[in-house]
Design a protein that fits this description.
This protein has 442 residues and is an all-alpha fold. 87% of the residues lie in helices and 0% in strands.
Length: 442
Amino acid sequence: MKKSSILRGAFILSLGGFITKLLGAIYRIPLTNLLGAKGIGLYQMVFPFYALLLTFSSTGVPSGMSKLVAEGNNPVIVLKSSIKTFGVIGFILSLITAIFSRQIASFQGNEGAGVCYLILSPSIFLVSIISCFRGYFQGFSNMRPTAFSQVLEQLSKVAFGLTLCYMVRDNVLLAVSLAVLSVTLSEVITLIYFLFKVKKQVFYGLLNEKTNLKPIFSTVIPMMAITLIVPLIRTVDSFLIINIISNYSSKATELYGILTGAVESVISLPISLCYAIAISSIPVISRLKKSGENYFYESVKTISITIVLASLLGVLTYIFSPLIIKLLYGGLGDYGKTVAIETLKISSLSVVFLSLMQTSVAIVNALGKFRITLLSGILGGVFKIILSILLLSNPKINIFGAIYSDIVCYFVACFVNLGYIIYNDVKRRLKNVQDNRYRVRG
């Protein structure tokens, strides 16, 4: 594959991801105003656990499948094998979520979210199948279907969500349920798109070709293990924040809604810009390593660009926090806006460290050292959970404890990844020195 096609593919995926994030942030504005702080908190409660289930059923599938297809494996066999494997996993997880929806919501601290889990459960199966189709096309270096499907999925969610919520805006619980239903409907639309996108011979192949599950599991599982960490942390957060803050405040769900529904939606935009740098660095550094060239310079340049851009975006987020909240989330009320502004100011530091973590993870993964990124994520997660319990338990710190623990989590992960990048370069240089000495002696 030519360098230009690699960078073009990365640009298309990054552009699609950015548009999706932008639409998501825009969607949160009217949705938050329609549902209110408590409604958006109830809406947001189901998604950390939902994201965790998607990690088990689909996250890492497109990347793993594209690798297998690009390596010359029969693409139809890869597609059929992945659908058979992850379709079954997705169906089982959907069924479990539907059956235990009430128990999950009760354990999370709000039984009202039970119907939301029930409505959202089919999406797990649908996303599992969709991820297989995305990986199939990515294997041919065709990133457009993935990018377009992401935008289509978000547009469908916005259209269904706002229309349905507006129709029943006087009934908060019903509006929340219909907002969740829009997610499932958007996945149906996306799957229909891919079914029309694939050619007829692919369907015939899916019926007639044999499956080979071994390469699917050997390639995808390491990637799934790494991507599991962040959703797992978010899921733990959803349980900790509400249950701990509820011990001394009646606004636990409202505070959680402000953090996840308003603040995190805002900071996801600058982070998505920096994520484009991380994605673009993977093919460049991978190619340099494979050819035996010095990839450390490109690594340093990528990290430097990330730090400069993330710092600039972080400062702008901090400065304009009051204006952003007042313009986008005026419906939160005086208390909600005050908390949101302070939360967004502190979260501006997360923009820097999370962006740097993304880039450092991308570089280490490009070097093929998945164990290092897994270790960094686990260590960061351990620090995150311990600090969350300690800080959230303090009424004076309150919801801000979740942000402080996030920052520490990202810092620890960056420290491990960057430490390995430096160590690996020093090791490479010492090896070159030794090789040169042997040549001189010879």
